[in-house]
Amino acid sequence: MAKEHNIKVDIKQIKITEVGPYEDTADLLVTTAMTKKEYKFPVINARNFLTGIGIEETKQQILTELQK
């Protein structure tokens, strides 16, 4: 998706428990995990990719954040 819109990204695939070291450098967290913790950056719930329902809306949320 980022490539299609010429947005350069550095993607890290990690567990939700491993977010800590990235808190000062991350711009966005896209996760299928439940989290109540507040972060300095936006958190997008991506469970829609698992269910197949509402994927386009989630993609748009991600794209909007990447374009900021």
From TrEMBL:
Coiled coil: none annotated. The keyword GTP-binding does not apply. GO terms for molecular function: protein-N(PI)-phosphohistidine-sugar phosphotransferase activity. Keywords: Transferase. InterPro entries: PTS_EIIB-like_sf (IPR036095). GO terms for biological process: phosphoenolpyruvate-dependent sugar phosphotransferase system. This is PTS galactitol transporter subunit IIB. It comes from Brucella cytisi.
